[in-house]
Design brief:
Layout: E1 5-8, E2 11-15, E3 26-29, H1 32-40, H2 47-63, H3 70-85, H4 92-107, H5 113-143, E4 151-154, H6 169-178, E5 184-188, H7 195-207, E6 211-214, H8 219-224, E7 230-233, E8 237-239, E9 244-247, H9 250-259, E10 264-267, E11 273-274, H10 291-294, E12 314-317, E13 324-327, E14 330-332
Parallel strand pairs: 4-5, 4-7, 5-6, 7-10, 8-11, 10-13
Antiparallel strand pairs: 1-2, 2-3, 8-9, 9-12, 13-14
Helix pairs in contact: 1-2, 2-3, 2-4, 2-5, 3-4, 4-5, 5-6
The chain binds 5-S-methyl-1-O-phosphono-5-thio-D-ribulose.
Length: about 350
């Protein structure tokens, strides 16, 4: 599969997710403004992938500073971090990655600008590689929760496309499949941007993993009919008490799963845990443009022009509806997951 995000000799190459599944196009970012708009426009999306791209964006921005004066350089790079931080508010991985890049600045002040520039590139590449490794480890932990011939419901896209590679929720599916478990996935289409229909289905079909596309409003009926054995989703931010912010619609699925006694699992790297958010309520929920709801992908209107629209991109699932959270450190009760990280 083509990598989600790559650093190629000072150019950030994104697999343009707005074009999938119809076209596999590479979107090249040669400056920070282009990186920021690519994140905002969902050319790259998914919490870990946004973090990796933003880290590379900082490395890219740092390379364009023509000074040998370290304080001037630092000021410029911090402005780049602010520009990238203003792209999307919900996924904590963005801010986590920017903090790591800022730490490189702080701990290398005695070096030359050229040396700091190359350390920033190294850090961005390390974040990318660590993300792939964490996804593979989460896959191994999470696959223990999946049995032969089970039917799995997932929402949005928490796959290779949403990370540097392999995926979180879909990483678990992939690992179970690679272990020879004959599983089957129901992918909710995920209105309004259709990450499930366009991206999850595409990824799973590429890997030959059996998948059936459903509309979001079918989940309850399928659970009632006993056709779903477990639910697996990703996360954009996990609060200290185990509440989870993820794609809008996740909460509805979790409540339905509880009513039908179906396990509901969240899979995310520890970079998604926000110890400063004591619960899900302070997590900022991104409100996206109304045209995502009123018009289809190609621009065809499906609602009367001028209608009032609500378009929150995420919701919060309280910890009580989550059976367990899988991180690279293992499988945890939601209210114990914060204990597993040290910042
Ligand atoms: O708006 P998106 O497509 O960036 O939303 C993505 C999600 O909600 C994913 O489930 C989440 O980021 C986890 S991705 C491993």
């Amino acid at each position: 599969m083509i990598p989600t995000v790559e650093w190629k000799a000072g150019v950030i190459c994104l697999l343009d997710q707005t074009q999938l599944p119809g076209r596999t196009m590479i979107f090249e970012c040669r400056d920070v403004a282009t990186v920021a708009s690519a994140i905002r426009e969902l050319r790259v999306r998914g919490a870990p992938a946004i973090g990796v791209t933003a880290a590379m964006g900082v490395a890219l921005g740092a390379q364009s500073v023509a000074t040998t004066d370290v304080p001037v350089f630092e000021k410029h790079v911090l402005a780049v971090c602010e520009q990238l931080a203003a792209t999307r508010p919900t996924a904590i991985n963005l801010f986590w990655a920017l903090e790591r890049m800022k730490r490189v600045l702080q701990t290398n002040r005695e070096r030359t600008v050229g040396e700091i520039q190359s350390r920033l590139v190294d850090e961005a590449l390390a974040i990318q590689q660590e993300d792939i490794a964490m996804c593979k480890t989460m896959g191994q932990h999470g696959a223990t929760l999946i049995r032969h011939r089970q039917n799995i419901l997932t929402h949005c896209n928490a796959g290779a496309l949403a990370t540097a590679g392999y995926g979180t929720a879909l990483g678990v599916v992939r690992a179970a499949w690679e272990q020879g478990k004959k599983i089957h996935v129901f992918a909710g289409e995920t209105r309004p941007v259709l990450q499930g229909a366009r991206l999850t289905v595409w990824e799973l079909m590429e890997d030959g993993i059996p998948v059936t596309l459903i509309t979001d409003n079918m989940a309850g009926a399928l659970m009632q009919q006993g056709r779903i054995d477990l639910c697996v989703v990703g996360a954009d931010r996990i609060a200290a008490n185990g509440d989870v912010a993820n794609k809008i619609g996740t909460y509805s699925i979790a409540v339905l799963a509880r009513v039908h006694s179906i396990p509901f699992y969240v899979v995310a790297p520890s970079s998604t845990i926000d110890l400063l958010a004591l619960s899900g309520s302070p997590v900022p929920i991104e409100e996206r443009p109304s045209c995502e709801i009123t018009a289809l992908h190609g621009g065809t209107w499906i609602a009367p022009q001028g209608v009032h629209v609500l378009n929150p991109a995420f919701d919060v699932t309280p910890a009580e509806y989550i059976t367990a959270i899988v991180t690279e450190r293992g499988v945890f009760a939601p209210d114990r997951v914060a204990e597993t990280i040290q910042r």
